[in-house]
Amino acid sequence: MRTLIQDSRYGLRRLRKSPGFTAVAVLTLALGIGATTSIFTLVHQVMLRSLPVAEPGQLWRVGDAVRCCYSDGYTQGNGNGLPQNEWSLFSWQAYKLLRTTTPAFEQLAAFQIGEANAHLSVRRAGSQAPVATANGEYVSGNFFETFGISSWRGRLFTDADDREGAPPVAVMSFHTWQGNYGSDPSVVGAAYDLNGYPFTIIGVGPPGFFGAKIADSDMPDFWLPLTTEPLIAGATSRLRNARLAWLDLIGRVRPGTNPKTLEAELQVRLHQWLASHVADMTSQEKALWERQTLHLTPGGAGVSLMRENYKEALWLLLMAAACVLLVACANIANLLLARGLKDRRQMALRAALGASRARLARKALAESLTLSVFGAVVGIAVAYAGARLILHLAITGQDTWVPVNPAPSAPVLLFALGISLFTGVAFGIAPAWMASLANPIEALRGVNRGVAASRGVLGTAATQKTLVIVQASVSVVLLSAAAMLGQSLRNMEHRNFGFDTDGRYLVSIDPRISGYRQEQLVPRFREIEERLQSIPGVRMVGGVLEAPLNGWVWPHDIGVEGKTEEEGSSGWTRITPGFFEALGDKIVMGRPISDEDNADTRPVAVVNETFAKRFFGKESPIGQHFGPVPQKNAGMYEIVGVASDVDFGDGLEPMYFLPEAQSTQFDDPESEEREVSSHYLYNIVIWVPGKPPGLEMRVESALANVDQNLVVHGVKSYSEVIHADFAQQSMISSLTLLFGAVGLAVAAVGLYGVTAYGVEQRTSEIGVRMALGANRGSVVAMVLREAFSQVGVGLALGIPGAIGVGHLIARQLFGVRPWDPLMLSGAALLLVLATLSAAVIPARRATRVDPMVALRHE
């Protein structure tokens, strides 16, 4: 320990005597360690941490697929990239059966899946203040008890609160209570109108508890008992529909329970429940229900849509950050090697006075580790800023809150410490090895003569060149990856969406939580469009259920009249008559939806070109009839027009459009629920050529004049909508470009140091060459040739590596080949320019060598 302390003090004295070297080395390490730690911070928060609950290791989830949306029917996992027949979601009836018949669970809780939250309008009872918007999540009465948490204020749910007919109550999240209500203690016990219905706030959740799921949007502000769902949802309620699976299940198992045995028991219970509903199944479901499988998976981390959405991006960025750290380590190793060569006489004297090779190596390693610790301390600050930047670029720039804390936690600090020790050893091995080769004879005869023949010096020069080659090859990989991802993002943002985004604006509203009844919707939307169209400069206004690139599209299978079998799947949406003109979607055949398409006329539809080709081929679709399966609905809609294809977010797929003013009746509850829900249009498209100033304020004012209680989420230009839609890709591209630029700069600094040191070592040789008639041009060419020979080897190794990385990130690329010669050439050109910039200064310095001084020195 005494020796360790002495070596550490020695390392600190050495660093204090070289403030310039120390500052450069610490900054370089801070960039590498900080970049890696910032990405690990998010990896830990999004992918590795457990829920902040009691004994998370005792929690098990029933099912293993992460679903964003509910499942309709008695079979699951037959599409959307999910395993065949994999059961993960449950109806309310199935949940009650499993809870009451599975004693191995101490508690089995249910909560609403994925992003399908209850969107709420919130106002304190009796208040005349404008309504606020919030996200609600339906949970079972034992939800909080299952996780073993206590309330911060008031109390949490019990099973008595989740009985049908119980007084409506709600629990507010701590984040919402603190951020939206200023930690007002009077909130607890107060009555609030949620979507117009009175609920009593009985408690506030504990700090840090955000529920059982992590998503990048719609995190719950309020928890509501499952049995209050019909009150909020009305005609679209899912609670009593056995076909609709919309609940995730997590339970706390009793000690000593074998998960495999419990899984088998749950599988039996599931099949028993399915067998009791065979009479309600379709023919396809009857053929598949006995094949349904169920898996029990650890539930301590909850259900994370965010983990599914961001895991590829985070691992990609972690690898890119590791590459930056590798370049930084190589650069510091080069600096220490050059520094060690200058101190080799001192090392030789120490060896001559009896210092062992191990002691000399330890002193060199002590300096390296001290540097790495300083780099880690500064790197933690860089990591905190970097994690905040990533959150802003990818998530919080969307005006949403996610339960991700960029501040360094204990695991992150341990990671930073571990990575700093690793890097300290990594870049300290070569200098320590060189120090251990110190020869006492050099101290006796002097080290300035005959060093060219010294095996240690030659070995050090070779090591330095190898490190430069590593930096060059890694830089090429980073730069090519950044170029490919950047071009991919440009391709996505500037591809043909099927309409001109210039001059188009999107208004997001929520008529459902504004309290409108279905019969009010058509006249209300007509009034909204008239008010908006009266704004100076507005050319056309059109409403739509979910606008292109701004939401989801409901798909279902289609049956065509005159054909005996279903033909395939199509998306659909509902619109007002001005939608096509407002969006700039051209009608290529027939006519658009018009004001004449109302409740008193036959049901009609407009289809897109892909729909027409998919279902009718070369036959004209005008006048043809189709409908959603089953086949008895095949004559439901008459096609009156064909619109050009528009990308709604998943590429060009079959799509049809229904008039807002028309409605049809369905026998099955699920189809009827969709029919009713589809009339609540959430978007309004406005065409305003020329982008007049103050449009957003005028739009909000016009909507307020229509109805003060109409919930308006915002007004955005379509360029903002597109940018938000590609926020994750933009974050990946920006950070990879940043990592590539940092790696290139660090590599250039390393090359400069090696080249400058090489020129210094060859001063005598250069003087002799110039004394014998060599001109300055030949000296510059000699120095540049030496530098470019190392970079050339780095390019030869880096380009195949870049192609390999291109194949690894192929899923992140759009319209870019992993072996794109333009991207690879651009990366190589940047490296060549950096090499030229780094080598030209030492080369010019070499031309100033005075031959007489060099010869006299020799």
Describe the protein.
The protein contains 25 helices and 28 strands. A 6-stranded mixed barrel has the order 5-6-12-8-10-9. Strands 20-21-26-23-25-24 form a 6-stranded mixed beta barrel. Strands 4-14-1-16 form a 4-stranded antiparallel sheet. Helix 3 crosses helix 7. It has 858 residues and is of the alpha+beta class. About 1% of the residues have low confidence.
Protein structure class = alpha+beta
User: What Rg do the Cα atoms give?
Assistant: 34 Å
Residue share in helices? 40-55%
Global shape? globular
Layout of secondary structure:
Elements: H1 2-17, H2 19-48, E1 59-62, E2 71-72, E3 86-87, H3 92-101, E4 105-112, E5 118-124, E6 132-139, H4 143-147, E7 153-154, E8 169-172, H5 174-180, E9 191-194, E10 197-204, E11 213-214, E12 222-225, H6 229-233, E13 244-245, E14 247-253, H7 259-275, H8 283-288, E15 293-294, E16 296-298, E17 303-304, H9 305-342, H10 344-352, H11 357-394, H12 410-436, H13 440-445, H14 455-493, E18 504-510, H15 518-533, E19 540-544, E20 554-560, E21 568-575, H16 579-583, E22 587-590, E23 604-608, H17 609-616, E24 625-628, E25 637-643, E26 655-659, H18 669-677, E27 683-687, H19 695-706, E28 711-717, H20 718-725, H21 727-761, H22 763-771, H23 776-808, H24 821-846, H25 851-857
Parallel strand pairs: 3-15, 6-12, 8-10, 11-17, 21-26, 23-25
Antiparallel strand pairs: 1-14, 1-16, 2-13, 4-14, 5-6, 5-9, 7-10, 8-12, 9-10, 18-27, 18-28, 19-27, 20-21, 20-24, 22-25, 23-26, 24-25
Helix pairs in contact: 1-11, 2-9, 2-11, 2-12, 3-7, 9-12, 9-14, 9-21, 11-12, 14-21, 14-23, 14-24, 15-19, 21-24, 22-25, 23-24
